[in-house]
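FAQ: What does the model actually see?

It sees only this:
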Amino acid sequence: MLKRKVYYQLLQWKEKQAKKCLIISGARQVGKTTIVREFSKNYTSFIELNFLESPSLKSIFSGDLDVETLIANLSFAIKNVAFIPSDTLILLDEAQECPNAITSLKFWSLDGRFDVIATGSALGLNYNVPTSYPVGYVEYLDMFSMDFEEFLWANAVTDQQIALLKSHFIQRKPLPSFLHEKMMEYLRYYMVIGGMPEVVNTYTQTHNLFAADQIQRTIYRDYLFDIARFANSDVKIKAENCYKSIPLQLSKENHKFQYKIVEHKGTARKFESSLDWLENAHFIKLIYNVSTLAYPLESFSIRENFRIYPTDIGLLICYYDFELKKAILEDKKIDTLPESLILKTSKGGLYEALAADFLIKRGTEHLFFYKQTGSTLEIEFLLSTPEGIIPIEIKAGRSKTNSLDVILNDANIPFGYKMADQNIGIHGKKITMPLYMLMFI
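And it is asked to produce this:
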């Protein structure tokens, strides 16, 4: 069983005195059902309903939705179920397939005797809207594929070893060279494998990159199938084309999303609803440019100037040829690569996408970047923190940080990060960190 952080969030939810029902949403195959089944071992009784696998179960919710009626219906429909107050977990899996089951969460919450979790694809939960959504009676938990720290766990890196890394991050103290090189190796493998649990599990069990790649590409095709299945008819083709355009968007010198890359003479009016759909489905994250480095960053965002990144770095990399994966794994001396290496033209955008993967999975709700029109000044990510606005410049190699150096002259910017294939170092307000240290930011 792969160790997941969300398991500990579920334990915290279980211990609440007056808890509401929980909706876990996310893209397909990120591990929602698996983690709930593992979590169910904390209960004496576990009742699982999968509406996609067993459509007939929808009839349980076709009549009255009070808890006593539902208990009676479930008892008839499923053999040997036990409803033990305070010690029963009910899983409504693939809940987007049964809107009435989502509506019933209100009544399970009001009753309070049993713990109920609904899981489902974010795209289905958003668009198969129940007649009476249980507003105010549910809690939400967004789930993504495995992050880098979870990837390290899967590869037998211990909590003690990760704590050692974190101590160097906090103290801003350089790592031993051998440890830095080992972590960069793990990072390159994470970049090509990504965080989809089945892909990670296949790799850790077999160490066969080709086998992991085949599963990854199948999941990518499944995502495209989900777009075709769940999106409204006026959105699905456009959403698929937008999703497929991400590698081309990130291969350009300017990574601003351009509709003309999706379609010749494409416009925002035609495609923006498709991007909204993809973001609501947890397939992508939109990151907006800001006109001014000031609080709140949202107030200065330029809505027509944005970049998009996928929520799993592996699903981006698998769009390319397998040769690109080999290039990334061989990318040890980034500054001395031959011009012919396939990674050369896409490197910057791919490492930006890697950084976005880290920040999205860290739960950063709003992400921004800064790029002045008509200028080379560019900061890939801006974070709003209690300390102030923190700029993060991403370097695929070890080149200079001209933009970050300029930004740090602003007295209102407390410090900034250069994330690169370099060990930890400090120069004035600039803190150089290895790219893998993004897991602690």
